[in-house]
Amino acid sequence: MARDIRYAVIGNSAAGINACEAIRGLDKEGDIAVFSDEHYPAYSRPMISYLVAGKADAKKMLYRSRSFYKSHGIELRSGTRVAKVSAKRHSLTTQTGETLTWDNLLLATGSTPFIPPIPGLDDIDYLTFISWADAKRLSSLLRGNPRVLIVGAGLIGMKAAEALAEGLAQVTVVEKMDRILPLALDDEASRMVSDRFGKAGVKLTNGTSVTSLEAEGSGKTGDGKARAGRATLEDGSTIDFDLLIMAVGVRPRLELATSAGLETNRGILADDYLRTSHRDIFAAGDVAEAPDVVFGEPRVNALWPNAALQGKYAGLNMAGAETPCPGSTSMNSVEFLGLPVLSAGLVNPPDGGYEVISRRDNEGYYRKAVLRDNIIVGMITAGQVDRAGILTSLIQERANVRRFKSALLEESFSHIYFPKAVREGRIFEEKVGTDAARR
After folding, report:
1. For 123-136, what is each residue's pLDDT tens digit?
2. How far is CA 103 from CA 35, 106, 264, 286, in A?
């Protein structure tokens, strides 16, 4: 007879953990089981570059304390891969054949690296860079200042480059687009980050792609594959490498959703309550295609803050709160070689129907806001991110900023520019939030 679980959570990262906390806040007794195919407790994936660089240890990697599961009455099934989900039977089956039934299920399965079909890649023992295991493997191979080729200059690729830039390796990054971080930043902010990497000795090759790979030293890994090789680019030039990191992007892990017969597009389609096409199955995090506040339609926003937010609201609704999620949007808050950068929403307008205002200070700080009909739909700050949270909250709220638009990018911009009623409400909300955090 299959064992019954009230709340089953598949995924042990930001979405899954925040869901568990929200559930436990409303339901102190219902049993929660978390399934993860990784052997680690919950950890902060954005920290893996600092682990490689030697700026973080195992303790700093933890997203919650090791006592978290016990103190919250959660059964952690680490190293347990769920092979199938049945919506009709309200069941899940693990890779060992164990079957369990559930009342409510959360799919927080995250994403998996996208590996393009490059000729010769199958002969290379390449690395990816999205997990603790990836970071440990990379660290184990950093001997003798190796030549490292990173394919892809998005957030994953550039954080890998940053980890290696300070004396661990000779780094070359190849990006198909004409600049690094093409989705997260605009030309100006991208140039600022590129300058930092150039000064750190990282070679950036933009506007081209790898067309083929040739392995060298076959058999060195014990499985007939080589780590070293040569990459040929579109213009015929070549790059020799000792290690290859594929960082082209990620894709949502949809296998379990497909096996359950759920509606999917790019991700698992989820409504305002993070509920999927089956009312007792929820989705959150990198795998969810949920409402986006800027675009006004479901989108996959595979970013850590969104996973945490969606996990919280999925958990509340699994426990019966019936509380709509305020919606997510793309938001990146990251630092590259000492340069803090924050971007949110639509940063590269697709046409002339948007108003763009920007400012570059003498100190090298850069700010930009993108508006449509006096509503902020995107922003970037680079070099200084103080008060950027006010702008991101205005994006989230779809606020009309006509009355104080001219002050948006001022260094002194604050709640004082808001109408009195709005200002007083915000100050009260922030005080309550601060007092609650202190408790």
Report:
1. 999 999 999 999 99
2. 15, 10, 22, 23
